[in-house]
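Hey,
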Amino acid sequence: MKKLALSAKVMMLMMAFVAASCANNEKATSTTAVDDTAAKTAVNIRYIDADSIAAHYNLAKDFNEAQLRSISKIDNAQRSRGAELQKLANSIQQKMNNNGYLSQASYEEDMKNLNKKQSDAENYIASLQREAQQEMVQQQMQLTDSIESFIKQYNADKKYDAILYKAAGVYFNPDLDITDEVIKGLNARYNKVEK
């Protein structure tokens, strides 16, 4: 009888163990299913900082230097044309003060000449500004195309779900920043093109 009671207790313990084991297995299976669903819905995002790219990407730096040269050219033209016009206006004023005009017609001719030169200068400056603006738009398009093309190529290996600009959000975990990698890749590609 004792053997039977002992066997019954062992059987009960075994059944409890099997039941517990099955419950743990079911729990593990449902947890794995939840984890798999969470993994499938998790989005793998990274970000880049446009300001850093503008400061460190060689193409962006070259375009920035070109823009500074254009601005300098416009400033120099404004100063040069302004000095010419001021000199001509001073000459007319001095001639008028010294009774150098023999007739109203000669004064009006000089003023007409001054106004034409002033109009020509304004048109020339406006033309330089339009050229600089068009060049800047073209450079911005080329820069954007270059960055986007590289990001597509870069992401072909990385398989991120999204790469955002830092300015698109208020806060990003710094561990998600791939700006340095992107700048290195952009510069490596740009330098190869230059050679």
